[in-house]
Amino acid sequence: MGQQIVNGLFLGSIYALFALGYTLVFGVLDILNLAHQAVFMLCAFLALTLVSLAHLHILLALPLATVAAGLVGILVERVAFRPLRGRADSNVAGLISSLAVATIFESIALGLWGPDVSRFPLGTVPERQLHLGGAVVQELQLVIIGIAVLMVLGLTFLLQRTRLGRQIRAVAESGFAARVLGIDVDRVIALSFFISSALGGAAGVLFGLAFNSISPDVGRSVELKGLAVIIVGGMGSMPGAVIAGFGLGLVETFTVARFGSSYRDAVAFAVLFLVLLVRPRGLLGQAATRVA
Amino acid sequence: MTALLQVEDLRVQYGHVRAVSGVSLSVGEGSVVALIGPNGAGKSSTLNAIGGLVPVAGGRVLLEGREVTGLPSHRALAAGLVVVPEGRAILARMSVEENLRVAVESRRGLVPRARHAALIDEQCARFPVLGERRRQPAGALSGGEQQLLAMSRALLARPRVLLLDEPSMGLAPLMVRRIFEVVEEIHRQGTTVLLVEQNARLALQVSQHAYVLERGRIVIEGPSAALAADPRVRAAYLGGEASAG
């Protein structure tokens, strides 16, 4: 039981990090960035390369790859979203152009690292097992949960207590009001993409470490889960994404333990339907606000 | 007198629709200048173009003789052109205090961080309705209170020229009077104001100089007292009442 909870939290922490990045950009731009899963994948490969070729310690490779993912996010915004801004169909157009970016990134990964599964070299991560009140838990799982929780807390602090965080929330609520207040909206959007992609990239590295298997299409399965998480959490809601991310991780783990792994996604998505039946806007979705 | 704000032959266009077709006006330091006219005359477009909120299609805007034409809004604000737009642009989901904080943080480098809290307290003391509700979402305020919040935010950005768009819109008469008291107070404290207002009577009372805008052009201008007595203005904008003013 305790072991299942740790497994669920561990999986959920990766979903939560991934979905936070998704929902952050959605909140700011009302656009789904479909390149998010490709950044997740690229960042995992980058960390792998830093560890296996440059022989960096993973605790150094992780932050480096995370920052690189953030920079890739800025590039994605510049190339796939900014040129379309102001168009009447910018939402759909952005969806398509970000899908194009994802495809390009996957092709690059295919060219650089090949179609086969790549693995971190042995000894990259601790392989000790810990005994916690009868449950056997991988030390790595606890480390991953810890890193994810720290990043979520850091993001919360940033959004609630800093100038940039207030500006991000202002842009998310109303681009016009943000401009009236003298906020450089383009800069805030670019930085939101940096943060979003850094979170998605970090999730990718943690995912790669956890399952020790990275391939160019590794982001695809997580993409769908991430979408489910932000819908259940409430589009644009950060706390919603965290709760739903951990929730999905727990549901999946318990489904596997109880019914076997074939039913994992079926049960997970059935829960999604149930939540949406009860709360159509998601767990913490904003009611449509009317601005005078 | 060299004007603090000088607008020359300003043009604004939305697609093929011309909203402002060559407006020239000047606003002297420390004065209140009113821009009146019917709906759709281009008053708001003029104001928003000066403040960088809509693109300028032609002409020039000079602030203290420096060209500020077509700056993006955050640069226009940094230069001292601060707009309180029609509809007030309140951040409804954020608290009253956060609305003020975002405003005080907008001009980086102008106000040291250590002073931010004190400046917000100052605004809350000045407008007690805001102080009493500073932790509440700004969307919970009444229309008049939101207008006070919007003006309070604008003052925190330290305007050289405060560009006020329809501050009385949608407000009850008592609140309209309160808002105009605040405009006069702001003026007395030395802030220069360019005021767009449907309520021509109030606008001419509170201002020293005024322009009448019709179909994107200035048709009448002069000292506000003279305009209030002008039969054309009286007939069109003051309801033609003999006792007006």
For the termini of chain A, the CA-CA separation is: 51 Å
Unreliable spans of chain A: 288-292
Helicity level of chain B? 25-40%
**Could you give the order of the helices and strands of chain B?**
EEEHEEHEHHHHEHEHEEHH
Which CATH architecture of chain A would you pick? Orthogonal Bundle
Distinct helical segment count of chain A: 11
Number of helices of chain B: 10
The strands making up the biggest β-sheet of chain B line up spatially as 6-7-8-3-9-10
Question: Which sheet architecture does the biggest sheet of chain A show?
Answer: 2 strands, antiparallel
Estimate the helix proportion of chain A, in percent. over 70%
Question: Taking Cα atoms only, what radius of gyration of chain A do you get, to the nearest Å?
Answer: 19 Å
Total number of strands of chain B:
10
How is this structure best described in words?
The complex is a heterodimer of chains A (292) and B (245). Chain A is mostly helical and 292 residues long. Chain A has a single domain (2-278), classed as ABC transporter involved in vitamin B12 uptake, BtuC, CATH 1.10.3470. Chain A has helices spanning 2-29, 36-52, 58-81, 90-113, 139-161, 163-173, 175-180, 185-211, 218-233, 238-259, 264-278, and strands at residues 129-132, 135-138. Chain A has a two-stranded antiparallel sheet with strand order 1-2. Chain B is an alpha/beta fold and 245 residues long. Chain B has a domain at 5-90 and 159-237: P-loop containing nucleotide triphosphate hydrolases (Rossmann fold), CATH 3.40.50.300. Chain B is built from ten helices and ten strands. In chain B, α3 packs across α4 and α3 (96-106) packs parallel to α6. The longest helix of chain B is centred in the last third of the chain and has 16 residues, at 173-188. Chains A and B meet through α6 and α7 of A and α2, β6, α3 and α6 of B.
